[in-house]
Amino acid sequence: MTRFRPCIDLHAGQVKQIVGGTLSISSDDLKTNYISTHSADYYASLYRDNGLTGAHVIMLGPGNDDAAQQALQAWPKALQVGGGITDMNARSWIDAGAEKVIVTSYLFPSSHFSLSRLQTLLKALDYDSDKLVIDLSCRRKEGPTWIVAMNKWQTLTDMEVNQDNEGLQQGIDRELVEKLAQWCSKPVTYAGGGRHLDDLDLVRERSRAKVDLTIGSALDIFGGKSVSFEDCIEWNKKAQASPQFK
After folding, report:
1. How far apart are CA 98 and CA 90, in angstroms?
2. What is the DSSP-derived secondary structure letter of residue 2?
3. Whole-model pTM?
4. 23: which DSSP letter?
């Protein structure tokens, strides 16, 4: 069943909505859609009170550990935490209250996928794969080809997903949604490009209700004007109650 999944993106200890491709080493290149006056635990409590499970907390760079931990304290064992996750800290984040940890860059040393690192990470989690989410942030290349990107969307890896819409509200890559539904047997969340409530219907239809959708910058709680947070909550309730949505 397709669901709306919320997010908490952290940068320098604050909740922000960032244009993904601008998050490079140089702060001069950074472009933000929104900087919240609320703390991370405010959003965690908001999601908890509305039963929005599967929310991800992403630490974009250093200086975000305290904010992430505050979010976990507000809703323990319910949030997924990513950003700088390795075999050395994955277990500590689970112990701190994360439901799951999210990993990308650690699995791609020198931009090459490492199966041994994946195995090492799973060992750190006592081989409980339900505690691990692999983030395949990707950019679309020529034709129906998507390449996994790491290091804040700056570096392309050698792994093809068989887009680059993060923070740009450029719309859903319909073909990728369809392919994800075909390829994946594990739960999948599409993040990046959502700009209308109808995008939830689009993802549900294109994926045959197999792919979830995260909407960030377009949400009113993040300064957006095209999608109401309350409408997303109602959409989830309708999806859960109506067999035709499943």
Report:
1. 10
2. -
3. 0.86
4. -
Q: Where is 241: in which H helix or E strand? A: helix 229-241
Q: What are phi and psi of 115, to 5 degrees?
A: -65, -35
Instruction: Quickly list H helices, 21-173.
Output: 40-49, 65-74, 90-95, 115-124
Helices (H), strands (E): how many in the chain? 7, 13
Compute φ and ψ for 120, nearest 5 degrees.
-65, -40
Single-letter amino acid code for the residue at 23: L
Tens of each residue's pLDDT in the chain, 246 residues: 899 999 999 999 999 988 655 565 555 567 787 899 999 999 999 999 999 999 999 998 899 999 999 999 999 999 999 999 999 999 999 999 999 999 988 999 998 999 999 999 999 999 999 999 998 877 777 767 778 877 655 678 887 876 444 444 457 889 999 999 998 888 999 987 889 999 999 999 999 999 999 999 899 999 999 999 999 999 999 998 876 655
Do 141 and 88 contact (CB within 8 A), yes or no? no
